[in-house]
Amino acid sequence: MPKGHVDSHALPDDGLTTRQRRLLPVTAVFTGDGKGKSTAAFGMAMRAYNQHFSIGIFQFVKSPKWKVGEEAVFTTLAGVEGAPTVEWHKMGQGWSWIKKRADGEDPAQAAAQGWEEVKRRLQAEQHDFYLLDEFTYPIEWGWIDIDDVCETLRNRPGTQHVVMTGRRAHPKLIEVADLVTEMRKIKHPMDEGRKGQKGIEW
């Protein structure tokens, strides 16, 4: 698709204008074994922020101890007067909308609670852009039902964009998505025993 041009043979016979198609909601998946899935998704979130979209970020696996650079950036930007809403929720520290976290919280239950909250917000059209980081794993582990996910994504109201990341995306998730990118590892510094680095991994 050079310079944003679309192959005229690829245009669907849906009666929509180019402008109307540009307003359609996008379902995106970044998957694969290579580095860069979350990085790509957060790049899209940054573009959404620039368009003054309300953003909801839900991290389904990452530990609360893991200090994500993008979180620091969005926290800073969210403090700017007139800035769009950016909500950041982590499963590992107990979802922020749940007042009390029980000791020894069941991660499967926490993942299910997170997905139910995302579903509720999608139905209410609470955000313009959702980033479900490492969302493929609770699906793979059977904590979240893939058929429920696909039905929710297909039938969500409005023009809400949903971007999901994680390895081994379920074939049904790939099928329902509009945009799927697979990150394939060619080389990685960790293959040579190097640890994660500031400014690269966090």
Secondary structure blueprint with pairings:
Layout: H1 18-22, E1 27-31, H2 37-50, E2 55-59, H3 69-78, E3 86-90, H4 107-124, E4 129-133, H5 136-140, H6 146-155, E5 161-165, H7 171-176, E6 179-182
Parallel strand pairs: 1-5, 1-6, 2-3, 2-4, 4-5
Helicity level: 25-40%
Q: What is the approximate shape?
A: globular
- Number of helical segments? 7
- In the predicted model, the low-confidence regions spanning at least 5 consecutive residues are none
Secondary structural class: alpha/beta
Pfam families: CobA_CobO_BtuR (PF02572)
Protein name: Cob(I)yrinic acid a,c-diamide adenosyltransferase
Keywords: Transferase
GO molecular function: ATP binding; corrinoid adenosyltransferase activity
Structural summary, described in words:
- The chain contains seven helices and six strands.
- It is an alpha/beta fold and 202 residues long.
- The longest helix has 18 residues, at 107-124.
- The radius of gyration is 18 Å and the shape is globular.
